[in-house]
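cron nightly-structures :: item 1 of 1
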Amino acid sequence: MVFFHSILSIFFKEVEITGLDNIPRDGPVIFVGNHANQFVDGIMLMTTCAHHKVSFLVAEKSWNRRVIGDIAFAMGAVPVARAQDKAKRGSGKVKVVKVEHGDPSAPGTSLKVRISGLNGCNFATSLNVGDKVRPEGSSAAFKVLEIGANGEDSLLVEVPSESSFYNDTSTEYNYDIFARVDQSGVYSKVLNKLEKGGCIGIFPEGGSHDRTDLLPLKVGVALIAYTALDKRGLNIPIVPVGLNYFNMGHFRGRSVVEYGEPIYLDPKTLDGYLAGGDEKKAVCNGLLKKIEDGMRSVIVTAPDYNTLKHVHVARRLWKRDAHMGAEEKQDLNRRFSLGLQQLLAKFQGNLPKDLSDFLSRIKLYQAELEDLGIKDYQVKTLDTEDDDDFVEPTQRIQRSLSYPIDEKQAETLMKDVGVPYRILHMMFTITLALIPAVLLNLPIGLLSTLYAERKRKKALANSKVKIRGMDVLLSEKVIFCIVMVPALWISYAIGAILFTNLDYTTITLVFVSMPIFSYVGIMATEAGMVDFKDLKPHIAKLYPSKRKRIRALPRMRLHLVKELREFVKEFGPTLGELYYQKDVDWAKVQRLTTKLQSPPNSPKRGAEKKKEK
């Protein structure tokens, strides 16, 4: 465990944990988390979960990899064969014929869709009932319910109503075949661990990704929970875990791990599970919906990256000068994200013009910051365009010392004195870090970046769900460093033995000190980089083309802050609990948001209205 804590302390600047009081102190627990950072997710959950030793379900593909497989074995993980890891290309092509059963307008339901085989598919010999087919371009695979009808080469498949696949009856698709995998052995191992009081970690999305929302959850976690209740009499708490990363994929990023309220099975639903067929499917889907709501309550979701950027900018603009902890940041991010989603749903995507224009101005502000290469927090340290234009700092200091200093002058004076101080501090820390950073860290840093980028491109090319493959970067850097850092240190020790006159005692002392030197180099380099980043706005002001743009930013930000508060005051009361309550039931708010986003006349909305009455 010390080894994994060391990895996090090196690769993350800060890891904050909230909601630990939601974890039952005794007995078995099933942890379910979003899968946003590949192998790092498991390390993060395992090291932040107090008083519990967690074993994970690990994809057999990862289990067979060197380093990852060795670590998984040491952690007591259970390998799981995944159908998508053994996918094969089907012969011929498929084409949608018609929807034979189900209502496409009802969200969250399944349709039975007839597809025909073209150009020699021969489904009778290449597929079995229970296998899945995935049309080219689709991120989802569809379960085969029936093979052949009236002697035709056709399939009856189960398709979610949210999919657009069933609408296209003209396109001929290439397709992949996912053979059904028997997981009974896996379930047996998991149940044995749980019966002994152990804890299991599951990422029910099935694979890591870098999307801004959850993927559809796999049914495995529901089957494990119901089987434990049926076979072992255990109603095991299911605790949602939110793994939230900032600057994902980058070295020395930040993370917030949030544990949500435990979810329990309703024992009354066990009869439906045991009945099998559609009843079993209904109760499993009901549990998955509860788990999904619980997982959404501990992460920040958004329709896309642009919306997520708006949310983060809004939170920074709203933030007061006082330090804001991780829990408060997550709270504000969720309020802005769900609030915006609810407003978009209420106005059916057509926001009032003044609010839409405000979001456009936020987008322009963020684009301006990115183009100038500075951060929002640095804008508050800049002079406004109303200050003395282009007066040299030394002249301002002399002028300030010659006359009585008011509050604004004092603030400006401290800014001017702070610039040379940061330069001196940066030079000192970089000098301190130079030797360990160049000899011990720089080669590994450069090579790990190149290695991880190559792996990212490969993972992106092989994935149907990744957007940029950013979820792969940090994990691959960690794997590379676990192998290559000791190798580099050993090579230095061998070189010292072969090519220097140093005695073995000195070489041994230097070798065992390398971890300390390396860590000091990381800390010192980080401190120097912080100073350099804080100097970037002042350096940018040396360029005439950027000077006026930078000096205009504080006033632009001030106007956005004022507008944001006015809009919150105007629209906030329409959001109910999000606006009025300090402690929000996030699962409840998420269900309300999903309901608002459903089509007004859908059967689901109608059923919910009857239930409310």
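cron nightly-structures :: done
The mean pLDDT is 84.
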